[in-house]
């Protein structure tokens, strides 16, 4: 098992969970700068889309060097497409490859991908093995062209390499898996035994079934069972828990109580990128980071009225838990640029500099 960066990752591991529509390059940059998590994982990208030359899908794979170690997450159902997509990930200079076997959305799982793979364990195994094969073939010198990767994807990557000067050394990228405890019922141990046969370097386990989506509470007792299974397997695989972590103390408590190697924090990082260090910020600092986040978003993705829309959910998360937050959010939702946001927030921060989020109940 080629563990790559995982072999040197300090424990306990406190990483950023991949979240579609949230953990884009701007969000990860801000999280890396202020939170310094153990690792970051991209939004997932569809391997079949890459197989058909959808260059736009590679937007999810933009990253900054400050984010390392940075892992690219991919999803789909076609093992051959996974094989080819891994060549793109390797050429882009990522530190690892993560396979999404946990997304509960109907558009993904309904087509057999994401958590849908829990129902087809043999296919899941084939996908993991193809990713390992691709990573090893790339390390041995096989080219993108020889892999069968679409020419449009190859052209994009080669142009990006010229622009960034990022030409990765050939090495085996470690393969990890993110999944759930079951599809419509809990089958944690039965399911993970299939995954372990393919020797991923890490399994990140969300403590809910697909049927639960994100409702109810994450089942950490099942995550504990998974940790025991993984640690008794004789492999060097690590098990990271995921679900409902709202603070660093809570993360550390769960790591100790349930015997996992670490945790991934997802929704707990919304508007709180420093959560990984257990820090708090006063309102002035928090809103200044919100402005910086907006500028970073524009720097990466460009700007027009429509393209700024994804930033608004982040602005909503930054502007909570202080007097006047509701009114401020209403103003921010009308913004269409970082300049608009700065014009609103810069005068706001001076009167809030002495306040801290925990001093006030969250306003609706």
Describe the structure.
The chain is of the alpha/beta class. It has 2 domains: 4-277, Aldolase class I (TIM Barrel, Alpha-Beta Barrel), CATH 3.20.20; 283-359. It has 14 helices and 8 strands. Strands 1-8-7-6-5-4-3-2 form an 8-stranded parallel β-sheet. Helix 10 (248-258) links the parallel strand 7 (238-242) and strand 8 (262-265). Helix 8 runs parallel beside helix 9 (220-231) and helix 11 (283-301) packs antiparallel against helix 12 (311-318).
- The CATH homologous superfamily of the largest domain: Aldolase class I
Name of the top-level CATH class of the largest domain: Alpha Beta
Q: Please tell me the overall pLDDT.
A: 93
Low-confidence parts lasting 5 or more residues at pLDDT below 50? 350-364
Major beta sheet, strand line-up: 1-8-7-6-5-4-3-2
Residue share in helix: 40-55%
Number of strands: 8
Overall 3D form = globular
Give the tags.
single chain, 364 residues, alpha/beta, TIM Barrel, 2 domains, eight-stranded parallel β-sheet, 13% strand, globular, disordered C terminus
Brief write-up:
This protein is α/β, with parallel strands linked by helices. The chain contains 14 helices and 8 strands. It is about 40% helix and about 15% strand.
Strand-helix topology:
Elements: E1 13-16, H1 25-35, E2 40-46, H2 47-51, E3 70-75, H3 79-91, E4 96-101, H4 106-109, H5 121-139, H6 144-147, H7 151-164, E5 175-182, H8 188-196, E6 202-209, H9 220-231, E7 238-242, H10 248-258, E8 262-265, H11 283-301, H12 311-318, H13 325-332, H14 338-350
Parallel strand pairs: 1-8, 2-3, 3-4, 4-5, 5-6, 6-7, 7-8
């Amino acid at each position: 098992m080629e563990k790559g960066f995982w072999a040197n990752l300090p424990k306990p591991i406190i990483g950023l969970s991949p979240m579609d529509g949230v953990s884009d390059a701007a969000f990860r940059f801000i999280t890396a700068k202020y939170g310094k998590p153990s690792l970051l994982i991209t939004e997932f990208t569809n391997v079949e889309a890459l197989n058909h030359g959808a260059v736009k899908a590679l937007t999810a794979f933009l990253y900054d060097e400050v984010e390392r170690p940075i892992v690219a997450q991919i999803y789909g159902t076609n093992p051959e497409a996974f094989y080819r997509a891994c060549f793109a990930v390797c050429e882009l200079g990522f530190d690892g490859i993560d396979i999404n076997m946990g997304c509960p959305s109907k558009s993904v799982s309904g087509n057999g991908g994401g958590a849908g793979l829990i129902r087809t364990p043999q296919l899941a195994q084939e996908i993991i093995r193809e990713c390992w094969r691709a990573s090893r073939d790339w390390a041995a010198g096989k080219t993108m062209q020889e892999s069968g990767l679409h020419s449009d994807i190859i052209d994009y990557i080669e142009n990006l390499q010229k622009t960034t000067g990022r030409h990765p050394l050939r090495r085996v990228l470690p393969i990890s898996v993110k999944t759930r405890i079951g599809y419509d019922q809990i089958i944690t141990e039965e399911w993970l035994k299939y995954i372990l046969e393919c020797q991923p370097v890490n399994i990140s386990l969300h403590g809910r079934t697909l049927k639960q989506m994100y409702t109810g509470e994450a089942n950490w007792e099942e995550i504990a069972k998974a940790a025991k299974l993984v640690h008794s397997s004789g492999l060097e695989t690590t098990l990271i828990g995921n679900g409902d972590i709202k603070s660093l103390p809570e993360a550390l408590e769960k790591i100790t109580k349930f015997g996992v190697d670490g945790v991934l924090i997802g929704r707990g990082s919304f508007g709180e990128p420093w959560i990984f260090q257990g820090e708090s910020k006063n309102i002035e600092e928090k809103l200044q980071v919100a402005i910086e986040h907006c500028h970073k978003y524009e720097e990466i993705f460009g700007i027009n009225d429509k393209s700024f829309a994804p930033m608004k959910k982040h602005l909503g998360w930054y502007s909570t838990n202080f007097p006047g937050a509701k009114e401020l959010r209403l103003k921010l939702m009308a913004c269409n640029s970082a300049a608009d946001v700065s014009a609103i927030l810069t005068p706001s921060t001076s009167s809030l500099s002495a306040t801290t989020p925990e001093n006030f109940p969250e306003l609706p």
